[in-house]
Amino acid sequence: xxxxxxxxxxxxxxxxxxxxxxxxxxxxxxxxxxxxxxxxxxxxxxxxxxxxxxxxxxxxxxxxxxxxxxxxxxxxxxxxxxxxxxxxxxxxxxxxxxxxxxxxxxxxxxxxxxxxxxxxxxxxxxx
Length: 127
Hints:
Protein name: GFA family protein
CATH topology: Metal Binding Protein, Guanine Nucleotide Exchange Factor, Chain A
InterPro entries: CENP-V-like, CENP-V/GFA, Mss4-like_sf
Number of strands: 10
Radius of gyration: 14 Å
Helix content: under 10%
Mean pLDDT: 90
Keywords: Metal-binding, Zinc
Largest sheet: 7 strands, mixed
Number of helices: 1
Domain CENP-V/GFA: 7-116
Distance between the termini: 48 Å
CATH architecture: Beta Complex
Strand order of the largest sheet: 6-7-8-9-4-3-10
Strand content: 35-45%
Family: Belongs to the Gfa family.
Shape: globular
Order of helices and strands: EEEHEEEEEEE
Number of domains: 1
């Protein structure tokens, strides 16, 4: 499995295409236990905001936000595939759906660590 320094990611139908600069390969591949990630089941990896460029289909992306409305989750309107999201825990990064990377088999990354998204520190309320 070769992760290129500049890699292409696509949704299932190909309507959305991302160009990713991955100078350090897949950074921090993980699953998360938050309600959203549990249901979508994707392995995510981190990329700085400036290292993700939408090269095709920006108009075909739809935004979903929930709970604190901080994270921005993007999905293809046509096929419904989650491509990436701007992270709540680090808003200077996107998390990308590793399964969308062209030529990458996400199953080859197993085992993948699981982040505790159920007890997210940004959910804490100071009393």
